[in-house]
Design brief:
By secondary structure, the chain is of the alpha+beta class. 43% of the residues lie in helices and 12% in strands. The chain has 21 helices and 18 strands. Strand 17 and strand 18 form a beta hairpin. The longest helix is centred in the C-terminal third of the chain and has 26 residues, at 535-560. The model is unreliable at 1-55, 400-414 and 418-422 (pLDDT under 50). It holds the Pfam family Carn_acyltransf. Residues 39-66, 329-353 are annotated as: Disordered.
Length: 665
């Protein structure tokens, strides 16, 4: 099922995979700026190009007025040299010689490369961000595979410690209350801007979290960016696959209190038991073209269906009040963290909570019956760091981040019904005919196949964390990347092409760039350790590999990466009716962009982590949170590919971390 991710790679640039679904970036715990008294830079932008961008910009006024540079186009020679170096761990001498010849031909004065570079630089002069529109259209909206697993990541919160449905609803009400506080901090500009190493970062993604929606289309989707049209604002709550409209603000403009929200949720639970639990939401898990056809049929069925589809679109976010998942309590036991990742990433199938989702919505808050909570987010407009930051805010405000146990946990079903009569959420039914019910059944089958194929395992490595790594004067991110390089080499006796996302938010509306974590230096290190070279030699090579990775990451974040530049050259050729450069279609390119390790870092001081599917069927996804005294990593692979096994990989990563500690101590 995850082969669709490679199709996205081919769509973007032959076999260049930019993996938008997990482009998380470097750090969530970024220091905040103290001075926001800046003005927005002025640029001469072509009016037609401006009109093309406007649909993807938030309608909210941007309160973060400080100048940011535009995304640069790196020098051509620099990119080609870095690209060639990145191929050395994977290609034979003969293949390298062939690629070098293609690159030299491309770079000749007055040749194809110079022309494409000039056209791309001209585009950069006309756009505040030359990549943005391409990135949205080619990386996301034209992508046809299902959103869950392939596009939408899950972020798992620290486990919450309530014991019954009242505790679940009070926790959900507290989360919603603090989300609305966070939203007000964003809209008012009171949320301190993110920064990285003293440099201000673009905050535009924060303005797109609420009210945004991805609308399915036959050949490409459309994106609706949330604005200030909600009057009063509301959320959609799903429970037992049934949808409800729930206000979060009185008509006077005053926010609902936490207790009032709790009453609304009580009303949802009471009403949901009286309605059929046909999982209309599971239709959003279909491939995008199929869902577009089904969406049209659903809307054409009656005016009520159209109205309720519009309400989901206009809602601030979707709250998923999940039911107990009996499947997780039977059969082969998994860790609590692994079970949580399944619930948040895809709902664990049609017999569990996959139908209690609306994957088109940019933000879904999941509050499970068993303490499992998290985000599932549609990736078109936002990366992980804003959602990690909001998660930390709401969890800490709710209960110090260690698991919330509300004191009101003794209500019986009768008491819930009694309280729920005070306020009633509005039921949002859909009228269904036999063909639509059959489409829902088909979507259930497809979702269950997808869920079955995803092999998820969460590694909770508690022997040491980033404090120890820093004490050895090494980068925790680079160090962990070497651990997963070593693990893969031990299992498969090969160096894996590796994608890691770096943040590009120091540029205006920047998203991400690729860190090619596998390098000559990393290959030298893993080969020497496996060959049992001397301790001093292995330590030297590990240090060199870590430094090389750190330097590459810094270049990527500073606008000197290579993969977005290569994408721009390719799409420039397509736009101008030119041939795609030959070096982007040869074995070096296809090999080095077959991302057998698809990775990112999500930093938090809480027991939280991200999970997503692998990029290719014969590879692994790995998102990790290096905490002070432990490292958590969500690891995924496909069961349909016999050679991959997420638990075995997690165990080998843990063994590699232990061996590396001995090296650097």
């Amino acid at each position: 099922m995850m082969r669709s991710c490679q199709k996205l790679s081919e769509l973007l640039i032959g076999s260049l995979s930019t993996l938008p679904r997990h482009t998380l970036g470097f750090s969530v715990g970024q220091r905040c700026l103290q001075n926001r008294a800046f003005t927005e830079p002025k640029k001469n932008v072509d009016p037609k190009q401006q009109q093309q961008r406007e649909p993807h910009q938030s309608l909210r006024p941007n309160p973060y007025h400080y100048p940011l540079p535009s995304l640069p186009v790196p020098p051509l020679g620099q990119t080609l040299a870095k690209y060639f170096d990145s191929l050395k761990p994977f290609l034979s001498d003969g293949e390298l010689k062939h690629t070098k010849k293609l690159l030299e031909e491309f770079e000749k004065p007055g040749g194809e490369g110079e022309k494409l570079q000039g056209l791309l630089e001209q585009r950069a002069k006309l756009h505040e961000n030359w990549l943005e529109e391409w990135w949205l259209q080619k990386g996301y909206l034209e992508y046809r595979s299902p959103l869950p697993v392939n596009v939408s990541p899950g972020i798992v919160f620290p486990h919450q410690s309530y014991t019954n449905i009242e505790g679940q609803l009070r926790t959900a009400a507290a989360f919603v209350t603090h989300i609305m506080e966070f939203r007000e901090l964003i809209n008012s500009g009171q949320l301190e801007p993110d920064s990285m190493k003293g440099k201000p970062l673009c905050m535009s993604q924060y303005l797109k979290i609420f009210g945004s929606y991805r609308v399915p289309g036959n050949t490409h989707d459309e994106i609706i960016v949330g604005g200030e049209k909600e009057d009063p604002p509301f959320i959609v709550v799903m429970h037992r696959n049934v949808l409800f409209q729930v206000p979060v603000q009185h008509e006077s403009g005053e926010a609902l209190s936490q207790h009032e929200l709790f009453q609304q949720l009580l009303s949802v639970v009471t009403q949901a038991t009286a309605h059929p639990t046909v999982p209309v939401g599971i239709l959003t898990s279909q491939d995008r073209t199929t869902w577009a056809r089904t969406h049209k049929a659903l809307a054409m069925k009656c005016k009520m269906n159209r109205h309720h589809l519009e309400l989901v679109q206009k809602s601030l976010f979707v709250l998923c009040l999940d039911s107990p998942n009996e499947a997780l309590n039977s059969g082969k036991k998994k860790s609590q963290l692994t079970n949580s990742s399944r619930q948040v990433m895809h709902g664990d199938g049609s017999n569990a909570n996959s139908g209690n989702r609306w994957f088109d919505k940019t933000l879904q808050l999941i509050v499970g019956a068993d303490g499992v909570c998290g985000w599932n987010y549609e990736h078109t407009l936002i990366e992980g760091p804003p959602l990690f930051r909001m998660m930390e805010y709401i969890v800490k405000q709710t209960g110090a981040g260690s698991g919330h146990q509300n004191s009101h946990t003794s209500a019986s079903g009768n008491n819930i019904a009694k309280h729920a009569t005070e306020v009633r959420a509005k039921h949002m039914p859909f009228e269904l005919d036999t063909p639509l019910v059959e489409l829902i059944d088909s979507a259930k089958d497809q979702m269950d196949m997808l869920v079955k194929d995803v092999d998820l395992e969460v590694m909770d490595f508690d022997s040491y964390g980033k404090d120890f790594i820093k004490s050895r004067k090494l980068s925790p991110d680079s160090y962990f990347q070497m651990a997963i390089q070593l693990a893969f080499y031990r299992l498969y006796n090969q160096v894996p092409p590796t994608y890691e996302s770096a943040s590009a938010r120091q540029f205006l509306r920047g998203r991400t760039e690729t860190i090619r974590s596998a390098s000559e230096e990393s290959a030298n290190f893993v080969e020497a350790l496996v060959a049992k070279a001397g301790a001093a030699t292995v330590k030297k090579l590990l240090t060199e590999a870590v430094k090389a990775h750190k330097a590459y990451g810094a270049d990527a974040s500073n606008g000197n990466g290579i993969d977005r530049h290569l994408l721009g050259l390719k799409l420039t050729a397509v736009e101008h009716g030119m041939n795609i450069p030959a070096f982007l279609m040869d074995v070096g390119y296809t090999t080095s962009t077959h991302w057998k390790l698809s990775t990112s870092q999500g930093n938090s001081d809480l027991m939280a982590f991200m999970c997503y599917g692998p990029a290719v069927a014969d590879g692994y996804g790995c998102c990790y949170n290096p905490m002070k005294d432990r490292i958590i990593a969500g690891i995924s692979s496909t069961r349909s590919y016999a050679a991959t096994n997420s638990r075995r990989f997690a165990e080998t990563v843990a063994d590699s971390l232990m061996d590396m500690r001995k090296i650097v101590e």
